[in-house]
Amino acid sequence: MGFSGISIWQLLIVLVIVLLLFGTKRLRNLGTDLGNAVKGFKNAMSEGEKGEDKEPERLEQADTHAGATAKDKEKDQA
Known about the structure:
Blueprint: H1 8-22, H2 24-77
């Protein structure tokens, strides 16, 4: 044991203690849940980036639509 930190033997002892406390089934379920959460987060981030790309198009369409309705209102008033 030096000043470098945790050795491989200390990590193995911690791993054995965790396995004894929680069991392999519970740890496997925890790993699966964590993996699904990360996958869902990545999907949400990629959908968010795609949504940001489409947003300016929607704003332009809304502006042209709003402009057309204002022109129609002016024609109706005249």
